[in-house]
Amino acid sequence: MAPIRDKFTIHSKAIVCQDVELKGDITIGSGTIVHPKATIFAIAGPIVIGSSCIIEEGAIIVNRRKEVMRIGDDNLFEIGCRIESPTVGDFNTISTRARVHHTVRIGSYCVVGAGCLLVPTEDEILDDYTVVYGPAAERRKWSGRGKVQEADLRRKHAEYLREMLPKFNRLRRGDGT
Amino acid sequence: MLKRSEDEDGPGRGPHDLRDASTCQDVLSLSISSTAGYPVGGTEMAPSVQYHCACLSSSPAPPPPHLPSSSSSFHPLHTLFFCEECDAVRCNRCVAVEVSTYYCPNCLFEVPSASVRAEKNRCARNCFMCPNCRNTLSVVPSDPPENSDGRLTVPISAVGEPPFFLYCNHCRWDSAEVGITFEKPTGLAAQLQKFEDSAPDSLEFDRLKEHFEPFIPAASAALARDIPGVSKYNPSQGDEMTEYRSRVDIATASRMGTGGGDADVEYMRHLETVSEVASLNQRWTSSWATSFQARDLKPLRIPLHSKRSKRCPACTHILIKPEQKAQSVRYKIKLVAANYLPAITVTLPHAQQAQAEAARRSLGKSTAAAPEDDRGGSGVGMHAGKTYPFHLALTNPLYDPIQVRLSVQRMHVSTATTTSADGSATEKARRPPFAVSLPTSSFPIAAFAEAWEYEDDEDMFGVDDDEVGAGRGGREKDGRGKVKTVGVLEKRANVTVVGGEVVIGKEARGAVKFNMLVSYTYRSDDPAPSEGNDGSPTKSTKPPEIKTFAFYTVVDLGLIIPREDVRLDSES
Ligand SMILES: [Zn+2]
Ligand SMILES: [Zn+2]
Ligand SMILES: [Zn+2]
Ligand SMILES: [Zn+2]
After folding, report:
1. In whole angstroms, what is the distance from residue B365 CA to residue B377 CA?
2. In this structure, are residues B188 and B128 in contact, taking their beta carbons and an 8 Å threshold?
3. Which of A43, A25, A26, A45 is nearest to A34 (CA)?
4. Residue B150: its chain A contacts at CB < 8 A?
5. A7-167 is classed in which CATH architecture?
6. Using a CB-CB distance cutoff of 8 angstroms, which residues of chain A are in contact with residue B142?
7. Inter-chain Cβ pairs, chain A and chain B, closer than 8 A
8. Whole-angstrom distance, CA of residue B345 vs CA of residue B340
9. Which of A10, B101, B107, B567 is a good FRET partner for B370, with 20 to 30 A between their CA atoms?
10. B311, B305 contact by CB (below 8 A)
11. Which pLDDT tens digits describe chain B residue by residue (572 residues)?
């Protein structure tokens, strides 16, 4: 395999802490926050992350495929989760220590609960509003009631981090600047 | 008897913190207490030591450990109490229990016992449980109406509007799914209880109660006051019992689809996905029989918990008494056995070594490798016809050094197996399946001391650097013959580790499980029975400087791998 060429494109309004591990071709959109100790590995194809996502400590985002891994807007990747999905929509929550394999594509407004493993051998798509929860990774459909309030909370969460993180962390800039 | 005083617990607290936590758990949680801490038979692989409470047997000696019924006489140390008055161990089976407070585990409101019945043992404030996943529900307002273009517009500091509903943050179930919404975010429990109380089962129960009311005059009061009073109940007074007529006859009830009648059968026939049926887990938390359709699940008011005091069955002295306040995790009285008896843990060096190696091997692998893979690994079991060392670590909870003597209770194998129906098994079992050697002489264990009382680390941890199980096992392996296996192996702080050995017979099968008598002598601080204000004299009125206390334990080293199985393993 050819050695991975690093190419980081970080939007000027994104907050990417110095102490993160980035490898490969990575694009990070406006307002997205990457906490220290997070890992983003574009092993095969590039990774493109949209705007206003929050990637917490110890979260690992990996692209094993040749195609571009696209992550939408306003997603929350909680502490220690690991995600390899080729596509991720908007407003999803991947909870603490959850794991999603590269065989799963994620729609929008999905929740993968804490510690849930989504590791099917066959390709599958998580429809919008799918909730995966509990030790047996049970699934159900969310009615979507309360999503505006949750989105509001997500925005406030991001806003707070955008203000606070730079006070205590050195930030990384993209290659262009 | 000498004990560690609770008041001396300093800010840092001693090594018994963990024990405190476990007893709290036991006393605080109403629903979990009966199962927590007890290893489920057969599934627990780790060797264990449990302590005997004599409440079930007429003699002080425990039943033979190979009888399945013996398990109810032995308990983990952290579940036991100690009565100073009787100088005896007490367990949760024999203590008398009294409820001292009812409280909601969610809002920690202390519910007066008068309201407990009226509120049907559930929180009447704003605490609800998700019927789907049992997480706590929160009350949320509805979202503002969506824009016509379908795009999500997020108003800054969105103020929700009625109707309010209950929402689960975990599985995203919400009460609007089952048609329950509220105009105001307050007083929800009362509204829900009205709902519950109008359930056909609830109404039927009320009617039953009404029907039986005249026949049990004062009986319930007597029952509540004093259990022996129940025998005074005289049935001759109530022989003219009228026939009970149910509110709804059984055929109608079954048609409503709660009692497993035709309606339910019909529903099951047309099932499309399994998730349409509410699981047993989801249904048994509700007070009444409910429909088993998942879409009928209702939010549940959170069941109350209780704090309980426990008394000695013999002398009725209080053994444990929590502080009244629900927020407090402290006790007014706490006579737990862990503060009196040495704690004993048992380890098998060869199994620990095998586990450590397996752990080292799996460390390189990805985290996905399940730890279950190591179970039943080659090194962990004990094979028939072999000899294994084992370690017993004894921890002294007293502020004075103690002198301990261990002995194995002799097993009457022949008498025990005559009951066996299978002839061949009897013959095999006639020879004792294993022989246990323990140190024959007594050995000391240093006094408990708070961590800051040690001069330096060496005092506390001992000079040996073989703290890790693997290291200890390694020593055993290298120096077989040179290092003694039976005897005192290690002394550090208030812990003494002694080694024992088990020789397993060639034809042995089953578990290596034996009763062990532990007797220890300690210096008694209170020479005269001055505390005995109830007039009961203690055994000796003369001030004896040294006292002895003895108790039984059962040591379970695990299952023997019989010969046949070994052969099968090697063939495959
Ligand atoms: Zn008992
Ligand atoms: Zn409550
Ligand atoms: Zn739920
Ligand atoms: Zn007593």
Report:
1. 17
2. yes
3. A26
4. none
5. 3 Solenoid (2.160)
6. 145
7. 61
8. 16
9. B567
10. no
11. 445 544 443 333 333 333 333 333 333 333 333 333 333 333 346 899 999 998 888 888 888 888 888 889 999 999 999 999 999 999 999 999 999 999 999 999 999 988 998 888 999 988 999 988 889 999 988 887 766 555 556 555 556 678 899 999 999 999 998 888 988 888 888 888 887 788 777 888 888 888 887 777 656 666 666 655 444 555 555 556 678 888 877 767 666 655 667 777 888 888 888 777 888 877 777 777 777 777 778 888 999 999 999 999 999 999 999 999 999 999 999 999 999 999 999 999 988 888 888 888 876 554 444 444 444 444 567 888 899 999 999 999 999 999 999 999 876 554 344 444 444 444 444 556 889 999 989 999 999 987 777 666 555 555 444 433 333 333 443 444 445 788 999 998 899 999 999 999 888 888 899 999 999 998 876 544 444 444 444 444 555 578 899 999 999 998 888 877 555 544 44
* Calpha distance B524→B269 (Å, rounded): 73
Q: Provide φ and ψ at B531, rounded to 5°.
A: -75, -20
How many whole angstroms separate alpha carbon A15 and alpha carbon A24? 19
| Residue found under tokens 């039953």 | B208
Q: How far is A106 from B345, CA to CA, in rounded Å?
A: 49
Q: Return the DSSP state at B530.
A: T
Test mutation, B152, B156, B172, B180, chain A, max A CBs within 10 A:
B172
Which chain B residues in 32-91 lie under 8 Å from chain A, judged by CB atoms?
Answer: none
- Which residues in chain B have Cβ-Cβ distances shorter than 8 Å to A113? 170-171
Q: How far apart are CA B509 and CA B385, in angstroms?
A: 10
Longest dimension (CA), chain B: 93
| Amino acid letter, B197 | D
Sequential DSSP letters for B362-430: HHHS-TTS-GGGGTT-TTTSEETT-EEEEEEEEE--SSS-EEEEEEEPPP-HHHHHTT-S-HHHHHHHH
Beta sheet of A111-112, edge-to-edge order: A15-16, A33-34, A54-55, A76-77, A93-94, A111-112, A130-133, A138-141
Whether the bond into B163 is cis, omega within 30 of 0: yes
What is this model's ipTM? 0.86
Structure tokens at B413: 């194998």
Residue of A nearest to B157 (CA): A152
Rounded to an integer, what distance in angstroms lies between the CA atom of residue B438 and that of residue B424? 31
Give the other-Cβ count within 10 Å of B86's Cβ. 14
For residue B214, the 8-state DSSP code is G
Yes or no, beta carbons of B133 and A133 under 8 Å apart: yes
Which domains are delineated in chain B? 51-80+339-347+380-571 (2.60.40.10), 102-143+159-301 (no CATH)
- What does the alpha-carbon distance between residue B551 and residue B545 come to, in Å, rounded to a whole number? 20
Considering A80-94, A143-157, B212-226, B512-526, the range whose residues carry the highest mean pLDDT is A80-94
For chain A, the domains span: 7-167
Burial of B365-385, coded b for 16+ CB within 10 Å and e otherwise, reads eeeeeeeeebeeeebbbbebe
Taking the C-alpha atoms of residue B338 and residue B341, their distance in angstroms, rounded to an integer, is 6
Q: Is B69 helix (H, G, I), strand (E, B) or coil?
A: helix
Query: What per-residue string of b and e applies to B464-500 under the rule 16 or more CB within 10 Å gives b?
Result: eebeebbebbebbeeeeeeeebbeebbbbbbbbbbbb
Amino acid at B473: G
